[in-house]
Amino acid sequence: MFEQLGLIGCGLMGGSFALALKRAGLVKRVVGYSKSPSTTERARAMGVIDVEAPSALLAVSGADIVLLAVPVSATEATLKAIKHLVTNDMLIMDVGSTKRDVIDSARRVLRDHIGSFVPCHPIAGSETSGVENADADLYTGKQVILTPIDKTNPQHLQKAVRVWEGLGCTVLRMQPEEHDSAYAAVSHLPHLIAFALMNAIVGQPHGKDYLSLAGPGFRDFTRIAASDPKMWRDILLANRHELLAQTQLFRQALQTMEQMIETGNSEAIETLIAHASDTRAQWRMGSKKPS
Length: 291
Ligand code: NAP
Fold this sequence. Notes:
Layout: E1 2-8, H1 12-23, E2 27-33, H2 37-45, E3 51-52, H3 56-60, E4 65-68, H4 75-82, E5 91-94, H5 100-110, E6 117-118, E7 120-122, E8 143-146, H6 154-166, E9 170-173, H7 176-202, H8 207-213, H9 216-222, H10 229-238, H11 240-263, H12 266-282
Parallel strand pairs: 1-2, 1-4, 2-3, 4-5, 5-6, 8-9
Antiparallel strand pairs: 7-8
Helix pairs in contact: 4-5, 7-11
The protein binds NADP nicotinamide-adenine-dinucleotide phosphate.
Residues 8-14, 34-36, 39, 56, 69-72, 74, 77-78, 95-97, 122, 125-126, 129-130, 228, 231, 235 line the site of NADP nicotinamide-adenine-dinucleotide phosphate.
């Protein structure tokens, strides 16, 4: 389907995309660039990319599909670096966890070529990062959210849908605002709570001892606290307004439960736990149907 993928950011998400696209027979050649030459070199040694590019611009040269898989805060600088070689025929996608800031950057930089850009967020990945964790199966069976804007070229949008479906993903479309509100609630807030919880425990006098006693519930609850600090710093700041709206709601829910515990209101506590427990038992990952 494509001649050449220009991959900018040969880490977990970008490397996995390149491996999956090659395995699906959807691209002939992958040219990659990462900030550190050692990452790009490793990506080539692992067979994730075929050719190392010395700059983002040269990674895009001759590409008919481009993937930005860099931290969201690097989007604008990356687009500026490649904009002289962007054409209207080129499909450009990203994988950023936030969408409004990425789209604002793309509008500012790409201007007349904004139609080439299809904003994407694959609901895949993990607390690991780096090309060494790249996996051709990372996207298989996962959801990908596309947040096109009014100027997105419909043909590029269709191509993007076919690419992700070709990797075994279910594609959903959302408004960028709707995306950022939803993921503030179900991704960014849980990460914030996991980071805060770890720090709250380890910051108390016997915290380290307590941690050594923790079991599977704690392990499951805090898995995401091991995520990459720079990547999550960017995400939490990029979506700060939606995130702070969610922290307010969470604080209210926490205070309600604290009051019930203080007053020993066992019936109310049980009702709230039952509500949460039923909701969690019925929840299925990725159950939203494409609209
Ligand atoms: P990662 O494994 O750390 O990879 C990021 C890559 O980007 C690294 O190779 C890094 O290069 C490169 N990079 C950083 N700044 C750059 C720049 N200015 N120019 C070129 N390359 C640059 O992180 P990741 O997990 O793949 O995350 C990439 C994106 O995916 C982020 O926007 C994140 O929000 C999004 N995302 C992540 C997940 C997840 O679970 N991990 C899920 C969904 C979406 P060096 O190695 O040289 O530093």
